[in-house]
Amino acid sequence: MDNGRHPSKRVSLAGMHIDRTSAVPLHLQIAKHIRDGILSGAFPSGTQFLGSREIARELGCSRTVVLTAWDLLYAEGYLASTPRGSVMVAAVTAPHAEPASPAGKPAHMSERWRALLGLDYETNWPSVFAPGAPDISTFPFKDWSRLLRQAWQNPREQECLDLPPEGHPRLRSEIANFLGSVRGLVCSPDEVVVTSGTSGALDFCSRMILDPGDEVWVEEPGFIEARWALTAAGARLVPVPVDDKGLVVSEGIRRAPRARLIVVTPSHQYPLGVSMGLERRLELLDYANKNDIWLIEDDYNSEFRHQDSMIASLRSLDRDGRVIYFGTFSKIMMPNLRLGYLVANRHFIEGFAKGRARIDVHTSGIGQLALAEFMREGHLLRHLRAMRRVYAARRKALIDAIQTQMPGDLTVSSAVTGLHLVALFTEAMQARMTDREAVAILKQAGIQVQPLSQNFLARPTRQGLVFGYGRLRVEDAAPLLARIAACIGSASHSAPSEPPDARSY
Ligand SMILES: Cc1ncc(COP(=O)(O)O)c(C=O)c1O
């Protein structure tokens, strides 16, 4: 074993630091010290250690501790015995002594991973103005926990061992009923797939539908998290502007006529809140059909329509089965459930389910079972009805406060649905500061709001503030807006204005 490279002198552990206050047992500390030394090259193979008695004396521990460490390292293959019975380092091929990256970062990052991390944004979750954050203070947790317990107490063997990738049949059926009564979307349970929320659905759909480099139309401004999933799938994002009738289809055609997928929020465009007009919807469907493009309809928040009648979903206008409809329980219940659903034609679902079964198998089963019962017993609809009243009052209070406190600075964009609104900067306000500057000023005062401009992929064409109101108490709206007006008012006398943010990706 001695190839001349290894010292014949037996090595002592006298310099090793033993931490007697640590919860880590001594034998594990010794084993770690030796393992680290071997992997870093400090103890090359063939290195022989002093006898266990001497080491125990050096370290001030019992010999049993040293022998236990040796046993562990023998079992792991780090140590071997010399013909004369001494302990030596086995023929382990140690990696390079220097770590590949000193900061401990992974050595290789794919382009997609880098691109994903580059799509950064200012989050204010779950502060009072966080867009889309629901109020859970009146959520029927008692019923929910009873149903969770019940699901665990009497599970059917089948449910514990095997669940289809499309989701629990009872939940799929409850979702189909729910969509018919709340959304006017007629579908059968076998057109429904239970997902891990909209983000999970987008992740899977983009992996199934797209090849790296495929073009995808995304709304501009748009939902940043949708861009994350698409970017992770290697898509090339094509920002398509939104006007007061929604996504400008003609502009999408001009920018990327060969797109493979279009992602839209037609009922309540995120973040601007506009509803896509019928003519636009038909134009979009027609173009998608003629060019074999998939359409994802993210129908988030349509359960909270505060005024005007409900608009038919894109999916219900779709005769060719190319719309994949997404819904989520993140707003009507809570985001940490990670439960949502998609509705699509059976043909798509069959392929999707087979693909999914090979990746993450299915969404966690136990929550699905509890949710199916929660819906069947009527708790979800009751909670939804109560929250509609709460959110409508909060929305009104916020709009009144903006209009009273900052009439010359902000104008409320369309806000008929959902849990957030956009307050666009007036020309006068835009001349004084950018939305990012306003957000920075407010942050210093402890108020967290999101800048509209960060929802643009290319150069922002509008400036404004995105206000969530799901967690805003009615009585707090006016005082908070008064504070915002005061902060912005006093800062704009001193802050020099800069041109709008000019990021481009
Ligand atoms: C536009 C949009 N779609 C969907 C969602 C819900 O996403 P998830 O179901 O992944 O929580 C949100 C949440 O903020 C959203 O803003």
Structure characterization notes:
42% of the residues lie in helices and 12% in strands. By secondary structure, it is an alpha/beta fold. Residues 1-7 and 496-505 have low confidence and may be disordered. The radius of gyration is 30 Å and the shape is globular. It contains 18 helices and 14 strands. It folds into three domains: 1-108, Arc Repressor Mutant, subunit A, CATH 1.10.10.10; 138-374, Aspartate Aminotransferase, domain 2 (3-Layer(aba) Sandwich), CATH 3.40.640; 382-494, Aspartate Aminotransferase, domain 1, CATH 3.90.1150. The two termini are 58 Å apart. Helix 1 packs across helix 3 (63-76). The chain has an eight-stranded mixed sheet, sandwiched between helices. The chain has a four-stranded antiparallel sheet with strand order 11-12-14-13. Strand 7, helix 11 (278-290) and strand 8 form a beta-alpha-beta unit. The protein binds pyridoxal-5'-phosphate. Pyridoxal-5'-phosphate binds at residues 132, 197-199, 223, 265, 270, 298, 300, 328, 330, 335, 340.
